[in-house]
């Protein structure tokens, strides 16, 4: 047991070291429908849109995604490229990274860029993001702009020669020669940011909204001298009588009337009613239309005047000499004015229609071309405002603004109002240069052509026969639909020819397989779509909630049926291993599976229910199910690292020709389950490195890795075990990929379980693949009872070739070179077979691919 633990530990250590060596300098597509992309290498050669090519993006590649957004992962950050974009990759691995965005729009988010600079060039501008940060760049026929979300961004306009620095949450339109950065709303950030942070957005907006305090002026510096004012001299007047004095004088005295009552003064203060602010905000999600525009609608709130209106009246008694005085202050003049903002705003007066809906570009243009006066009346009161923000997966915002106002009885005298009209205009658009026109982009959305394969094969496993095969594969692809047909002709001595056209089978199953033999590949939908159906030789849709099936080993001659249906948190994955029915027609087993997976929206707990079906025709039809129940509990769930605890439970239930429920649940047993497997473990994913360790308790017919290459042969791969330990380590990089799998079944005494032939039942698989420019090569090795075979080889009881090919071993070795439209490859393999061979199958292949884009 100590030796077994040492071997397991050494394999884990070697895989982790390999993952660390290759995990820091790769550029790959982390999300999006890869099959819908257009890829070209640095020499302009068209590449197949496969997961292999998307995982090794190099410098100078041309990437076009006309129908789907993609997320490019680099060692220095991420690039969220929106649909309808075309870009050319530069150096994306160093701290002086650069990329050329030809057309479209993309969000660039950098990290680990201390003292580094990301340069994004467009046909008319160049933008530099210093250090860690995020920016959005748009270059199209209608708009040329850059938006800074975080970090420091400087923008250079090659048409005007100006360089401007853009603060966070500012957007600069390059087509305006004298333009200034304009502030954006939080909704714009939440729409286009790769990983938006609401708390960070609010903090930045609060910092930008702080008022700017003008500096206190200093005291004036000037020379001064005291001013002396001379007092004027007062001349004494001289009084001289105008007439002679009067001899006699009579004076009559009359007292004026003085009112006895006290005057009454009353003051009446009237406040101007002020509309209330918005109190209710509701949100809902709607389906995104084809066109999109962001509009911010807000009610106009008048400023509170600093003075009030007063009326002063003085009343006196009603007598002939009574005096009445009425004094009023000047009426207050209210001026409504809105400050300029950097976002598109629509001001709505209170006397317009109660409902306003902006849902199309044409309606917005009509509003922008209209000057709307703002009028505030003393009798108006804003009662209620509701703003509905509706967003979809394609990040479209449609605003609906409902205003309900209650008219109050107007007073007899209205105060004069000075009206200030507010006019909102859209920036003028110009046409920017582009490498391809819109008509050229449309032609690149589809292609058709033909592929011709010639293969020469020396079969050492079949009496050293020589054969020549010519295969013609016409193909057509357009958007979510892709199909490739095939037909071949084969000969050994050029005197007799065989093909897949003749003879026509007699059995029903043979006829179905005969019809599917003309299909090489078929795709309907995308892997990110709600519905996806694919017929292919590679199984691309695999649920990590099950451990029934071993990883695909080398090339496969089977036509795998795969389908995926997504609706909300539910995902249904169905697969059947071979539509050619090669094994069923040879009286051997074939496998199919269906798994329904649910992932919660909050805490991402995943629950999976499903079953693996084993179909056999030896000597009669039988169908056995292996029901599954699985759970995954995320512990660490970040963008680059995921660590989860997993739990799986398997059962066994024969369903044809008769249903035997006692094999699934038997109440006469103490455990209730005569056949079961209960496993717990953990799974790790770090960028392109994944690992899974699962320990299980078994009884009866259940065990992990039921489906492998040896299960398709006439060999009996069943065994009985009490415990199993599964280790699955994988790494997929741009130039290197590897898979290491080892499943060790143990008995109750902790000895390795045995097959019916007495050979050890542990299953192991190792594969390595390399690519140097256009040269590819690799090898793979799979065994039953690896430790036992090694011991026999070292002791001399088995030949070294039995380690690579024989009853319990299969292997392959390949090399190829891609010239563009022409490809050469060589392959040597020992197929999985119950017989032992000393000479492998060796084949040389040449391929020519002719295609036409439209």
Rg, rounded, reads: 42 Å
What is the mean pLDDT? 77
What would CATH call the architecture of the domain at 27-203? Answer: Sandwich
Shape: elongated
Number of strand segments = 50
Portion in beta strands: 35-45%
CATH topology of the domain at 27-203: Jelly Rolls
Assembly type of the shown chains? Answer: single chain
Question: What distance separates the N and C termini?
Answer: 62 Å
Largest sheet: 20 strands, antiparallel, barrel
How would you explain this protein's 3D organization?
This protein has 854 residues and is mainly beta. Residues 10-23 and 303-444 have low confidence and may be disordered. It has a 20-stranded antiparallel β-barrel. The chain is elongated, with a radius of gyration of 42 Å. It has a domain at 27-203: Jelly Rolls (Sandwich). The protein has nine helices and 50 strands. It starts with a helix and ends with a strand.
Structural key phrases:
854 residues; Jelly Rolls; 20-stranded antiparallel beta barrel; elongated; signal
Topology of this protein?
Elements: H1 2-22, E1 28-31, E2 38-40, E3 46-47, H2 51-54, E4 62-65, E5 70-74, E6 77-81, E7 85-89, E8 96-110, E9 117-121, E10 125-139, E11 144-157, E12 163-166, E13 170-173, E14 182-183, H3 186-192, H4 198-208, E15 264-270, E16 280-284, E17 296-299, E18 309-315, E19 325-328, E20 334-335, E21 345-348, E22 355-358, H5 361-368, E23 372-374, E24 382-391, E25 397-405, E26 417-418, E27 420-422, H6 438-443, E28 446-459, E29 465-478, E30 481-485, E31 487-491, E32 497-499, H7 508-516, E33 519-524, E34 531-536, E35 560-567, E36 570-576, H8 582-585, E37 590-599, E38 606-617, E39 621-637, E40 641-650, E41 653-656, E42 676-686, E43 689-699, E44 723-732, E45 736-746, E46 763-772, E47 775-784, H9 786-795, E48 809-818, E49 822-830, E50 841-853
